[in-house]
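In the previous chapter we treated chains in isolation. Here, by contrast, the input contains four separate entities that must be folded as one system, with a combined length of 270 residues.
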Amino acid sequence: MPLKVRKNRSQVLPPVCPLAECMKLLGGAWTPNVVWHLSGGARRFSELRVDIPGVSAKVLTERLRVLEAKGVLSRAVMPTSPPSVEYALTPLGAELVPVIEAIVKVGERLKRRAMHLEAAPELSPRRGAGGARAR
Amino acid sequence: MPLKVRKNRSQVLPPVCPLAECMKLLGGAWTPNVVWHLSGGARRFSELRVDIPGVSAKVLTERLRVLEAKGVLSRAVMPTSPPSVEYALTPLGAELVPVIEAIVKVGERLKRRAMHLEAAPELSPRRGAGGARAR
DNA sequence: CGGGATCCTTTTTGATACTG
DNA sequence: CAGTATCAAAAAGGATCCCG
């Protein structure tokens, strides 16, 4: 292996587009939580507010609107008194759930790791350059 | 099905924490792209700038620092002239890749769907009000 | 080459208060 | 209950210049 040719990645990896597209979807700080809490079934506005501690009505509304516009969830107004509105994932939204689950799984692992790092800060070996960690 | 009892979701679904934790990780608009473009192997700073069109040096630096601090990627300074720095996913960072791939996959699907909606705006049936099962 | 330091603009969030 | 309106605060992103 005489020379490690550094390939132009765009020949083997798709361009940035699909990622950017999808992150606009899950981009909002609360968006994944909304999807997550709808993954178990339909849920009403006020229930979501309780499910997701710390979210304001405004932000929640906003996220729900965006997600509805993207076809990720559906909004059903029940003509009752007092009014109630049910949100539920569409089939398309349901496809996001595995993604969320994967995220959660990794998130937990990272959390555990962070705890380890706290205990032993210099465990992670610096790659490369014979220990050339400037900085 | 006499009565659909609305359970307290936190008994069956984990609390918000892991999701929030992990989204701080993938939260930045560019972060997933960075991980994605490192998924094929180590990459230098300037290469990443080319890989990810539109990213500024500042933002890229910032994202890389954050990801390094979280243990997602490693930073190796090569003591050459001119200096070069290689970034690579850590084993932990590699675990994120399936997540990214899932995101990309869904992103593409959403894109296709968006195109369909453009063509036929009133295809999506509004739930509720007609089949509105009052509670 | 690989950034750090600044400054500035655009988005996102948050806190209240009010309404049908 | 399920929002809307409004304002203030904060974060993210971008542009530019400079340095080792």
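Confidence is low (pLDDT under 50) at residues 129-135 of chain B. The longest helix of chain B spans residues 97-119. Compare these points with the single-chain example from earlier in the chapter.
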